Amino acid sequence: MNPTLPFPADYRERARLLGTSTLYEASHLPTAVDSAIRPVWDGAFVAGPAYPLECAPGDNLALHLAMERVPRGSVLVVGTGSFIAGYWGEVLTVAAEAAGVIGLVIDGGVRDIVALRRRQFPVFARGISVKGTVKASVASLGSPFNFNGAWVTQGDLVVADEDGVVILPQGEAARILAEGQARADKESVMMDAISGGRTTLELMNLTQWRTHS
């Protein structure tokens, strides 16, 4: 285990191999985030402890303040009330890299997509927008909140890939990774059986449904 996190030391590699779909199924918890939050460039992936914050609609001051407070190695999880504007772009990406932030999940909008892709900084957002933001207020920094279907607390394990975003409670993350691996191993055996001529109906004990066709 990582001495500073309740996750296995190789959690990033395991999360990448398992993927968000398997981790969600293994969690048996409401860990999935709204599917409208998507990677802004193909192949983006991130896994790391969450740093939650909330911005007022059209106001990104909280993001700038977070750069002085966020623990290195964190993933920013940003609520905006689903307001689409350019909360984040190349300048904040450079600032985030300097602060040790490894990725961003935001339910609002971002911009400077070419630069984000070039820098290979993982960003998952609800939309893309050229509209600017003001800097006048802060809703919350580091406080728990319900992020589009999944509760997020500082230190929870965020995993995001091309299938979606899941937020695993930090006390459950090790279990979910282990159960995810068991599920993946079981599916590997099943796929070998399918390649050998078995059917999914047989392997899933669904043959009674043949009589309904």
Automatic annotation (TrEMBL):
Pfam families from the UniProt entry: RraA-like (PF03737)
GO molecular function: methyltransferase activity
Entries under Gene3D superfamilies matching the protein: Ribonuclease E inhibitor RraA/RraA-like (3.50.30.40)
One biological process term in Gene Ontology: methylation
SUPFAM superfamilies: RraA-like (SSF89562)
Source superkingdom: Bacteria
Signal peptide: none
Keyword Protein transport: no
CDD domains: RraA_family
Claim: Lyase is one of the keywords in the record: yes
Keywords: Lyase, Metal-binding, Methyltransferase, Transferase
Protein's name in the database: Dimethylmenaquinone methyltransferase
Organism for this UniProt entry: Pseudomonas ulcerans
